[in-house]
Amino acid sequence: MSAVTQARPAWAGAPLLMGAILLAWLLAITAEVTGEVQWVHHHRLVVDGLALWASLALFLVAWQVHIAAMMLPTTLPMVGLYRQVAAGQPHPRLARVSFLSGYLVVWTAFGVAALVGMALLEGLGARWHWLHQRPEWLAGGVLVLAGAFQFSALKEACLDKCRAPRAFLLNHYRRGVAGGFALGLRHGAFCLGCCWALMLVMFVVGIANLTWMAPLAALMLYEKVGRHGARLVRPVGVALILLGLLVMAGPAWLPGLVPDHGGHGSPLHGAH
Hints:
Layout: H1 15-34, H2 52-70, H3 72-86, H4 92-127, H5 129-132, H6 136-149, H7 153-162, H8 165-172, H9 176-205, H10 210-225, H11 229-249
Helix pairs in contact: 1-2, 2-4, 3-4, 4-9, 6-9, 6-11, 7-9, 9-10, 10-11
């Protein structure tokens, strides 16, 4: 484990991962510029004209792009350290793949759970006229929730783990493919515990909505690796709470977040 104390820059040994991150951002930007956002902006359980399995497959592909763009940059320090530590074990490449697979399993499970939750809310909105006419309450409520979570003990505990990858590896590292997968699951769980509320915002504003995607990705990255990242957490929480209250009080002030009242573009109906 001595290699943990001699880590190179996180991206130095992960060219494929850096390529995946850059490709994901390129896809998101291209989709936005060309107007073909439906391919990466998907957050409905059932898309009109597609079978359920095809809709779910489309979402899973779009969600992997989303994870690659927003979450993989925040885990580069851990990936760089794990690459060095695992170099001395049998089948190090397979162990690294297994580690990343465990990490992606956690975030994929969260994406599916959030997708189902949005579908349930959509069904509730269709039957509850008041909520159907006030989608800003969902959008504003999620922003308030994300802001409030910035003050939680869980956020602080998980952020501490994510900001200390060396200590995390020293405590949890196990050799082998199974050990790498278990470590990826554990790391993914702490990453999820730190960032789930901010990622949930994307289900309201639309997956791959660059107006929100870029600043939220930068925020989550800086919280984990920035020199003063821990100091930023609570001010961001205050800003999100105020923004959520503003949305609920006057949705017309933020038309990009709540396009209309109960129409096709509202959070309860999703963009596709």
